[in-house]
Design goal:
By secondary structure, this protein is α/β, with parallel strands linked by helices. About 45% of the residues lie in helices and about 20% in strands. The protein has one domain: Rossmann fold (3-Layer(aba) Sandwich), CATH 3.40.50.
Length: about 130
Amino acid sequence: MEQTQKTVMLVDDDRDYLNLMQMQLEAAGYKVATAESEAEGEELLRSLRPDVAVVDLMMENMDGGFVLCHRIKKLDPKIPVIMVTAVSSETGIEFDAASDKNHTWFKADALLTKPARFEQLKREIERLLREYSS
């Protein structure tokens, strides 16, 4: 897929993960804007309309990613959101972004379990960009 400098908003409180994903996404041809918290992500949204957002679930608040995802979709429902989380391994709670039941309250378009490999993330970004551009 040819990149036309699509912008990825990456929000995660794990600075090492954030830096690694930023480097890999930039090497793959994306512009990347980062934030280390739900609050920073909301601030970033005031000045940026990303082509896709990648959001951690548990940040400064246990539900910070849910809240940020909801705000992104409220601002612009056409921004695809990928939730990346370790919640299942940490809490035993499992949910599916694709199920109709969960999609009423879970506004993300895709869910990846941490530690997500870069190839998985890139594949989801490309899929969602294709879906949202058609």
